Each structure stands twice: as structure tokens, then as C-alpha cells.
Amino acid sequence: MNGWLIYTKADSIRNKSYIDWFIDEAKKQSIYLRLLIREDLSIGINQNKQVIYANGEEIYADFAVIRTMEPLLNKQLEQMGITVFNHSIISETFNHKAYGYLAIQQLGIPVPETYFFPGKIAPPSLPFNFPFVAKTANGKGGKQVAMLHSQKEWEAYRQSLTEDYVLQSSQHIQPGKDLRVFVIGTRIIAAVLRENLNDFRANYSLGGTASLYTLNETEKSIVQTIINAYDFGLAGIDFMFTENGEFIFNEIEDAVGSRTLSKLSDINILEEYVTYIKEKML
């Protein structure tokens, strides 16, 4: 069984140890996993046939694990008969915050009060009082997220906009605290609580702390509702907490990393993921 692991060049350098681990776990289960750099690939149509080239050479595989946020790539490989992890629907829906909020709200799961705007278009009047949170729709890892406290800060943020964004109320939500639930397929693997006393963003990469978290039955039910509704491979489902300590949806990480989980536990999430991929391919 042959598969691809697709990264951008910059991310492949930053995640080298993770990539080596992934390839090693695949080898242990008799799977050849080849790293492909996105910048080396050309996808499209040639003589009315969908094709993918790596450095000018036409290539093919049984499956692809795509670690870029590029739904078009996922979609074309699927149409070529290559099984893709994660599915293009996941990439399309959850790598854009507005689409993600719409999808999760349809499942009856609480989401924050949020408004969606394209590009440089600004609301005629702000939908809530300061402070509030502004996020680019495609941002990840807490990047391009700002807590705005004044009209001056809002005006400066507006000038920086070049892509879709969302405005989100910060009322009744605990700052600097969130939860990432790691899932594979329809199975909950583990949950990690992230807290940051110095920033409203709880991301571990931004200086927060992390600890394992045990989901209660209500929380498990919320997560299970999401993973039963979508064809996930490996993903991270992030929740914030209301003032009452209840879950409120934040986002889903399609190309999720597992650095914090590896530090906090002996769970070999890539071994489990490769097993899942193998079962899906048989």
C-alpha cells in the first residue's frame, strides 16, 4: 500500500520529527508513505484527464494524507480515485471559520455569537460592544486573532484585512482557556485542556500550559454528535468554556498536531491513525 504525506515546504521543515514519526509508523504496518512537498506538485487536467505531477513526473498513490489547508487539492485527488485523509468536505468546511460555525450550529451545538464578513467589507455598525474578538476566517494556531478594546484598535485591524474574517463576542466566555479533543474516525482518543494566564488565546504554542482532561458524559455526547456527522480521519475539535463551565464550540483543526498530547501521555496517536487508515483502505 502506497501513500503520500503532503506538506508545504515551510511546514515540512517545522514538522520534520512528526513526519519522520509518521513515516516510521506507516512502515511498521507495511505501508510506504512518501513525503511530497506541495510546491513541487502540479494538479489539473491534461487531455481531458485529471492528473497530478511531482516535479514534472506524473504520479499516483492509493491514499494521501494532506496536511495543507487546500480543499481543491483534496477534491481533485478524490476525483482521481485516491482516498484522502481528511476528506475534502472536512477541509472545505472547517478550514474556514464561518463555514465551520454554520455547520456545527446546524447540529444543535452551542457556538459563540459571531458575524461573518468578506475581505475588506466592514459592518455598517459594530454588532457588539468592546472588547470583542476578530479572527481571519482561515487563520490557525491562534494567529491573526485579536482582542479589540477600542474604536482605534478596530480601525487599525480593518486596515490590515485582505481576506474573510469573523467578529465574535467575548462576553460570557472564559478567556485564555480552551479544550482540544483529539478524534480518529468516530472515536474520541483524548482531550487536552489548554490555559494561558497572560493571553486570551489558550494555544500551547503561544505560551499556554496544557494538561490531560477527562470528558464528562455531556461533553462526550457533544463531541460524538460532531464526529458522527462527518467523515473525519484525524482531527482536533476545539471548545471554549462559558462562564458556567459549559462547552461552546471554537473550531476544528483539520491538519491537527499532537505535540501536547505526546508530552502529556504515552498515547501513540500516529500508530492509531495509521491503523485507522489501513482499515479504511482494506
From TrEMBL:
**Alphabetized GO MF terms:** ATP binding; metal ion binding; ribosomal S6-glutamic acid ligase activity
Where does the ATP-grasp domain lie? 101-278
UniProt KW keywords: ATP-binding, Ligase, Nucleotide-binding
Q: What is one cellular component GO term in this UniProt entry?
A: cytoplasm
Output the InterPro entries linked to this UniProt entry.
ATP-grasp, ATP-grasp_RimK-type
Can the keyword Glycoprotein be found in this entry's annotation?
no
A Pfam family found in this protein is RimK
Which residue spans adopt a coiled-coil conformation according to this UniProt entry?
none
Keyword check for DNA-binding, yes or no: no
A GO term (biological process) for this protein? SOS response
Task: Supply the name of the protein.
Answer: Alpha-aminoadipate--LysW ligase LysX
